[in-house]
Design goal:
By secondary structure, the chain is mostly helical. The chain has a domain of 232 residues. Helices cover 84% and strands 0% of the residues. It is built from 19 helices and no strands. Helix 1 crosses helix 19. It is globular, with a radius of gyration of 23 Å. It starts with a helix and ends with a helix.
């Protein structure tokens, strides 16, 4: 009750900022927990299964993810764009979209099973693909319910649910490892946890938004029509994210797939901000999009902070690849070190691409994102298809992963550069360009120092960190003073809002 009173008592802009900050804190906390749990399991699985069996697991998951990328229909981005403005609209299209998804999922299950058999995989892998497919269906349904809640800025119970469902998934994976369960049981962990999450999310959506399941053909078609650019983009993004593993599973050994998947598992640690950007930043960009000055300010400063976080993350993973890989997976996965190093520049490009794509989509330029995404998918898939086997022959064991990593990085750099060229001054200004250049120079100095001090071994890593921090702080590449000012401002606003709310309650009493 006090939150509502506070929001009504202060100007709307301040209330929006406080809600955004509060949601960001809750989502970030939830992400830290869920990603920590997921990362722990992702680190345990390769060591427990070994390169060959983990390669089969990764291929089955990738094939299911690619297939079920076609049933999203782009509706989640439509939800994030429209529901903040008219929450009651959700009932108009939600039921019809879910019915179409059910019909489409049956087709996808058949196609993915046939593709798995075409790749000469045995029955266990085919069954695992199907089980992963069911989990992807639940994930797709749950994601739409979650998008409704995020769009309505009701994230408290959702954040707790994410943690609980991830713990359930981890527990089932742990039991499967302990019991040496068949491969499909590991995929079944996602079915159970995501099924529970879906049921709770749907009930929350009914409570918070008054969501009802009904089939309204007209509104469903209108929503799908408006979502079509997002849909095509989502297909490209989904296929792009897993196409390399799917192609590898059909061209090279399960062992090579296992090496590459192990490298990408560790590298996903650097993608922690991705959901936060999508769930928290999207509504803010949507509200700022009609106002050019506010849009530009939000985009330029977001780009600056995105690079400030992404560049050192990629640098750390690249320089510490051999130590991290050996410590986490053991000597069996040493051939994956090259792929992990090759992936290190990718994260800055990925985050820049995500931010620019959000800006374009929220400012009614979704078709631009669609075209760039489809182009990147075609480039990535084509290069992997033709280069994986030659790279394996040329580079030896682990060579396919190095090829896939290099292709991924190159494609992401192309995408990020294209987006920046399209947005121009809407996302780039002198300040963030200077910060980027300073960070790159600092990274180059650290890499040179790392190579020159090879005799120090593992001790180089803390030295690398200290030197990088000294360089970026000393040069002003990272605006920590601004961050401190923003935190202080938020605290003042919260304190002021609470004081006004108390005064309002007292006077009304």
């Amino acid at each position: 009750m006090s939150d509502v009173a506070s929001d009504q008592a202060v100007p709307q802009g301040q209330a929006d900022r406080r809600i955004a900050v509060r949601n960001a804190v809750m989502v970030t906390g939830s992400l830290l927990m869920t990603w920590s749990i997921a990362l722990l399991i992702r680190l345990i699985l390769p060591r427990s299964l070994g390169p060959d069996l983990f390669g089969q697991y990764s291929f089955a998951e990738a094939l299911a993810v690619n297939g079920f990328g076609f049933i999203g229909f782009g509706i989640d981005m439509y939800i994030q764009k429209e529901i903040p403005l008219r929450p009651e609209h959700a009932t108009d299209f939600f039921g019809g979209v879910q019915l179409l998804r059910l019909i489409a999922s049956a087709i996808v299950l058949v196609v993915t099973a046939l593709l798995a058999r075409t790749g000469s995989h045995d029955a266990d892998v085919v069954i695992t693909v199907l089980v992963f497919g069911v989990s992807q269906l639940f994930i797709t349904f749950a994601a739409s319910c979650a998008s409704l809640l995020y769009a309505s800025r009701s994230v408290g119970r959702l954040s707790v649910l994410n943690i609980v469902s991830k713990l359930l998934w981890a527990a089932i994976i742990g039991i499967s490892v302990w019991r040496h369960a068949p491969l499909w049981a590991f995929a079944g962990a996602a079915v159970v946890s995501e099924g529970v999450r879906l049921v709770v999310l749907f009930r929350l959506s009914r409570t918070v938004l008054g969501l009802r399941l009904r089939v309204d053909a007209r509104n469903t078609l209108l929503a799908l029509k408006s979502s079509f650019p997002f849909y095509i983009t989502a297909i490209g993004v989904t296929l792009y994210g897993k196409i390399d593993v799917a192609i590898m599973g059909m061209q090279v050994s399960d062992r090579e797939v296992g090496f590459y998947s192990a490298a990408t598992n560790i590298s996903t640690l650097a993608m922690l901000m991705a959901p936060l950007m999508g769930w928290v930043l999207t509504p803010q960009i949507a509200r700022a999009a009609p106002y050019p000055a506010e849009f530009k300010a939000l985009m330029t400063r977001s780009l600056e902070w995105t690079l400030a976080v992404a560049i050192p993350l990629g640098l750390a993973l690249g320089l510490g690849a051999d130590v991290i890989m050996h410590a986490v997976y053991g000597s069996r996965f040493d051939p994956a070190v090259g792929a992990m190093r090759a992936l290190s520049p990718m994260f800055a490009a990925v985050y820049v691409s995500m931010l620019c794509a959000l800006g374009l989509s929220m400012s009614n330029r979704a078709w631009t994102v669609t075209k760039v995404t489809l182009l990147s998918f075609v480039v990535n898939g084509t290069l992997n298809f033709f280069l994986l086997r030659p790279s394996l022959r040329l580079l030896g064991e682990g060579g396919a992963g190095i090829c896939a990593s290099t292709v991924w990085v190159g494609t992401e750099l192309l995408v990020a550069g294209t987006y920046i060229w399209i947005l121009g001054s809407e996302v780039v200004d002198r300040r963030n360009v200077r910060a980027f250049v300073k960070s790159i120079v600092a990274s180059a100095i650290v890499v040179a120092m790392h190579l020159a001090t090879s005799r120090l071994g593992v001790l180089r890593l803390p030295l690398d960190l200290a030197v990088y921090l000294a360089l970026v702080l000393g040069s002003g590449a990272v605006p920590f003073s601004e961050l401190r000012g923003s935190v202080a401002y938020i605290r003042r606003q919260r304190a002021g809002g609470s004081a006004v709310a108390e005064e309002t309650k007292s006077s009304s009493g």
